[in-house]
Amino acid sequence: MSFLSTIKKYDDFSFEDYASGITEEMVLSSLKKEELTSKDFLNLLSPAASKHLEAMAKKANKLTVQHFGRTIGLYAPLYISNYCTNHCTYCGFSVKNKITRKQLTLEEIDTEAGQMAKTGLKHILLLTGEAKGLTEISYLADAVRVLKKYFSSIALEVFPMDEDEYILLRDAGVDSLTIYQEVYDRDIYSQVHLSGGKADYHYRLDTPERGARAGLRAVNVGTLFGLGELISEAFFSGLHARYLMDKFLETEISLSLPRINPAEGGFKAKYTLGDREFVQFILAYRLFLPKAGINLSTREKEEFRDNLLKLGITKFSAGSKTTVGGYNDDGDSTEQFDTSDKRGVDEVAAMIRNQGYQVVYKDWEAMW
Amino acid sequence: MSDKFILGGVVFNSRLLTGTGKFAAKSLIPGMIEASQCEIITMALRRVDKTSRDENVLSYIPKEITLLPNTSGARNAEEAVKIARIARAAGCGNFIKIEIITDMKYLMPDNEETIKATKILADEGFKVLPYMMPDLIAAKKLEAAGAAAVMPLGSPIGSNKGIQTRDIIKLIIENSDIPIIVDAGIGRPSHAAEAMEMGADAVLVNSAIACSSDPVKMAGAFKKAVEAGREAYLAELAEVHDTAYASSPFTGFLEA
Questions:
Q1: Which CATH number is correct for A3-360, 3.40.630.70, 3.30.930.10, 3.40.50.2000, 3.20.20.70?
Q2: Whether A250 contacts chain B with CB within 8 A
Q3: What pTM was computed for the model?
């Protein structure tokens, strides 16, 4: 079994036709339920539900407070390499882009980590491009061992790997995995991933499962909004999260909603996720999956982030740099994408506290 | 009135245990403790950040309160045991609440691993409070393993559904020689009162207080509910009858 078989069930399903048949009553009925089916989830993602955002928001807020309290976790990304052998049409790190490439040495990683740790952050997300020949698993394991001196939780957002490689990295100190499918639509996937390891849709799709089987305690999934049709992409992301929750009871599953920002290479997104729909999707995720974590990155603007805080988000990134070595210099390397919220960790933390929420710097430490 | 709560050889006045998780600000904790009059508070050791005074939850807990570190995050007995040893070495005292959860979907405790960890830690001199899925046989095994109390769940953590496991908890209360502390699922003061009326020795309430819009006020409400439930239990509640009960007995004439 793979999530692919769930996706294939919808091969002949017309999201457009279904959406046009959604009535007010259907939306209200889905909104009232304690446990939502996948059809309820789709009803809440649809344009018919956009009139009921306030009611959805109230319920989302209540559910989030019930399961997470008034708390927001903080994390930041750390890019240690931007070498990449993939040709992905939308990504700043694409092999086709003539950018400054860099891979940090362990000493440089130590310096970066020390700089980041000064902000008080305890949870970090480690990122690279995909160049397995250069960014080897052993290099990542060494990097993780350096980072463990500074941080209590390390998540990985690198290239998909085999289960035994995840086990190796878990043993080095990685506890969580972020892996976005980017786009669940199989045709579009092959149109935007032209060459390199990432062109293998199915291998990527099963990556969260390999991570969970390897004993990573948390797995984060999502689609990159802009590549595929919006509602079906949101739908499959939510279904993927639920599939993982059902299959791996021991793994914490969360979702992110990255949407395309200008990146190197001048990619024009085919679809645009507007703010209103973005909010609606977060609310629908929360109502469908009351216990799932939802992350919000600095791709989003300050004011927008501040307004989203009470609507279902459980983690914010803060003070993010998306360049390699960005925490110590302001970048002779190229950003993977452009961040919008440029505030430092302290400023974001103050904003969270001002809204009556606790800032959680440390939520995890493996003590064994 | 000498209705004291004795746990692990220590005498307490309060039968309400609280927790440090999910508050909108850690600074609410002292007021919550004051209003609840609780004497025992649990905290997840994995969340304790000793590197920063502001972030260190321990700096918000008055010295006279008994700390109940818990092993949240542990997935097997071995991990729970390691956390307990770290807690003791860090000066958090001898009490330990064992939480071993391998199910992130419903957050159900793993009784089998919990029994193993209880045995190891009780043998090392810890006062062990295992959080458990209500099951009479497992409760008896925990007692035999040396637990200072058992903590059966009322309903899934954070569900606020109250005492859904009522009948099994009753069996555990009736058949245990150690205190029973109902933990998890208590969403309202009336749920806490119900557990106490049933004869539970104490209850642990965290989310229902921490997630309320006014945690201090809610803490006070729980204090009263726990006391009311306890007094009702001591006063022996009248039985509930399904049908009307004639106050003049039908067979009274035979006694004349």
A1: 3.20.20.70
A2: yes
A3: 0.88
